[in-house]
Structures are given as structure tokens and as C-alpha cells.
Amino acid sequence: MQLPTYAFFNDQVLLYSDARVGVLTHALNYGTGVFGGIRGYWNSDEQQLFIFRPFDHYKRFLESAKLLWMTLPYTREDLVDATVELIQLEQLRTDCYIRPLAFYSDEVIGVRLHDLTPAVSIVAIPFGRYIEKEEGVHVAVSSWTRIDDNIIPARGKIIGGYVNSALARTDAHRSGFDEAILLNQDGHVSEGSVENVFLVRRGKVFTPPISDNILEGITRESVIVLLHDELGMEVVERHIDRSELYLAEEIFLVGTGIQVAAVTRIDHRQVGTGEMGSLTKNLRELFFNVVRGRVAKYVHWCHAVYA
Ligand code: PMP
Question: Is residue 245 helix, strand or coil?
Fold first, then answer.
């Protein structure tokens, strides 16, 4: 992976090589931090880079911080401005990924969330696909259970919580799958390791509700609007059973990393025809036009970097 040249770190822009922490850093020892993941899309016709829904991403970022008793000295607007400046400095004119991080930076021993000092960093790097086979993902239902709201709230992007995702993803990978879907403690479908899940059955689209221990995904929210308003689909948010995944006509995963990806096999069972379904295909096409700022109705989701 190509490293960034610069990093926004504690109110200033430094060389990335100078943005360093010590090994005793609280968040490094105890997972006490939160992060974000945002994409920028290059539009070559307009010679413009569009950041996808940065205000909504930073809203969730600040909410995740709140869950960890972290008060950050920034508004969403400050963080968007810092991100734009950083990308301009990096002179990124290609698809990219933005990684904001807020973490307890004290070099102290002691598990807690009080009497600690948060630090904030942002970096941006060129970025293509997160998963190679976006058109045909083979997913495993994981034997790991999704972290519950009373364990580590999944609705926040809390660093420590991602060990749950990493266990599921690596076990799926080592068993020959591309990705994992986790069930929650009630046995209902929650989400992928870093994606929200949708399925199509009998002409309707279903996705787990936000109270089923999922991250409140911004792609999920965007896709619900596009499915309903542009593709005329009814989207139902309700508990989903594992066996509904096995009977689905189409399944797709959505998230900043994976974008919109077709699941064509699950636990060695073929999904629908075993090829990407027509709704997933139409949604992907629409989604990629929207994120590149090519659909007038949704340009308000796209934040231009260059004047
Ligand atoms: N679920 C989890 C666990 C994730 O980490 C992500 C990626 N941020 C998502 C869902 C998708 O969220 P978003 O669309 O906001 O990227």
C-alpha cells in the first residue's frame, strides 16, 4: 500500500513520517479510539474529486467518539475542511480513501475512558477496490457472534470492536471464502465484517434494522434511498434469519470499502442463478454514477475538493 505524504495530526498538517505515537499510547493498548472510512471519487470529465457524504461520515465519527466519552474540539465542518485541505496538499486526482482517527493518546497504564486526552488524525491515500470480486463474492456465515450493544456498541466505529470483524474475516478467508456475515446474539443476521447486508426475496428488499447490532452505514442509508426512489423497490428493515440468506434471489453487501458487491454464493450454496442479479447490477450502475457526481439529484452527497 502506498503511504500518504502528509497527515493531519493534532491541529496541524505534518509529514506522515512525523505523525507518530509511543507504544504506551492508551488506544494502542486498549482499543480506546474510533475511526471513519470515507471515499473520494475522481470524475475525469469534470476533473473533480468528490468526497462521498463527508458531513454524514463525520457526524457518525463524532457520535462514535461520544460513546467513548471523548469530546473532540472539532465540528463536522472543521473535519471536512481539514480533509479537503489534506487532499489538496496530497494532490490526489484519483479514487481515494480517507481515514480519520480519534484515539486516547495518553501514554499511561489503566483501563478506563476518563481522565484521558483524545488525539485526532486524518490521512488520505489512493484506493481502488477493497475486495477484488465485487461482482461475485462467496460469503460464509461466521461462527463468531456479532458484538452486542451492551458489549461494545456496533453502531459506533470503535477500534476495539473491530477485533470481532477481524476474527470473522480471517476465519472466512482461511476457509476459502471472500467475506463473512455475522449473526447477532439472537441468531439474526447482523452484517458483514465491514459491510451492511441486503437480500432480495419475492420482489422485496430486506435489510436488518439498526437495532440488530450493525454499524449505521452511510452506504446502507444511501442505497435504501436509491432502491426506493430510483429503482421503485420496497425496502423492509426487519430481523433476517440465516435461512433467508440461503433462499434469497439476490444478496448484496454495501459499505464504503466494498461499495456495492454481489454475493453469488453463501456457505457453498448458489445465490439465485449464481450470477450477479439484475437488481444488484442496476443498483451498482446507479451507485457508481451517483458517487462520481453524475446524477444531479444526488450531487448534494458529493463534496467537491477542487475549486
Ligand atoms: N458495517 C461495518 C462493521 C463497517 O465497518 C462498515 C464500514 N464503515 C459498514 C458496515 C458500512 O458502513 P459505511 O457504509 O458507512 O461505510
Answer: helix
